[in-house]
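Annual report, structural modelling task.

Input specification for the flavin mononucleotide complex:
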Amino acid sequence: MKKILFVNACVRPGSRTLVLAKKALDKLDGQKEEVNLCQEKLLPLNREMLEERDALIAAGDFSSPLFQYAKQFAAADEIVIAAPFWELAFPAVLRVYLEHITIVGLTFKYSPEGMPVGLCSAKRIIYVTTAGGKIGGCNLGYEHIKALAGRFYGIQDVVCFRAEGLDIRGADVNGILEETLKEIESWSPSAV
Ligand SMILES: Cc1cc2nc3c(=O)[nH]c(=O)nc-3n(C[C@H](O)[C@H](O)[C@H](O)COP(=O)(O)O)c2cc1C
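The model returned the following structure:
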């Protein structure tokens, strides 16, 4: 059965992003597993952690729990990431997660020419976000994930669902969310 990984970076209780992400997850068939980043104890990489990690990678020893997130990410057949639009991108907890999954030997390797080559099984990432204001052409969270996915993880298909303008005074919040829910509902995920 297809393994679907849900990377949940929704911080607020009552998250609107989470509502949209659940709809996207409903569209996918397979065994779903969630990593809730606000419940994990992930820390930004510091010098000691980097040294420990680099020594293990150099020894080819990926048995440490340090690598659990990268292994889980690499093994997923499809990935849904939910992250509210914060500072034109996403919450820091997602950035920290990216530091933990971008591991040479697990999610990517280097070619003899020094170019990253993806090692992930997934063919597609679905990125879901909601914004208080207008995102316009500044969807930097999505762009960051798309660039990393394409250049490092080897995942070329990155789809974005977004709802914006939710915090603008007088906004029809339910109406805006309903539009994106309909968009997700009418989306036909091709088999990947
Ligand atoms: C820390 C923080 C940073 C935010 N930064 C932005 C921003 O840069 N641009 C914007 O339009 N809205 C911003 N917002 C508003 C959120 O994008 C908006 O409320 C979003 O719908 C929250 O998603 P949620 O309901 O899933 O928590 C920010 C909100 C917070 C709490």
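Residues 3-186 form a domain with the Rossmann fold fold (CATH 3.40.50.360).
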